[in-house]
Specification:
Layout lengths: L1 E2 L5 E7 L2 E6 L2 E2 L9 E7 L7 E5 L6 E7 L11 E2 L5 E9 H4 L1
Parallel strand pairs: 1-4
Antiparallel strand pairs: 2-3, 2-9, 3-7, 5-6, 5-7, 6-8
Length: about 100
Amino acid sequence: MSVNANEEVFDLLELFGKTVLFTCMRVKRNTVPDNLYVYDVRHDDDCSGRIVEVRPHILVNHWGTVICKEPIEMTDIGCKFVKEDDYRYTGETCKLTEYM
């Protein structure tokens, strides 16, 4: 199931030193304004709930979706690996219009 970004309440997440929006749902890309960037995040194979990878699209082990104001630089293979100290949940929530 995919959600409309304009109707979702997102968790705020600090990822690679930047504040981004996070939802555990898949977001319909056509509902996100063109000036924002959308990526899927993958959790580890042990299902411990740790974010381990960011990609433009994730099919297996999808943990959620992030929306950010700046692009995330990817490796040559089209992903960005995530270590535990690369992210933290802030405990706050936000709508897309508030974030923009």
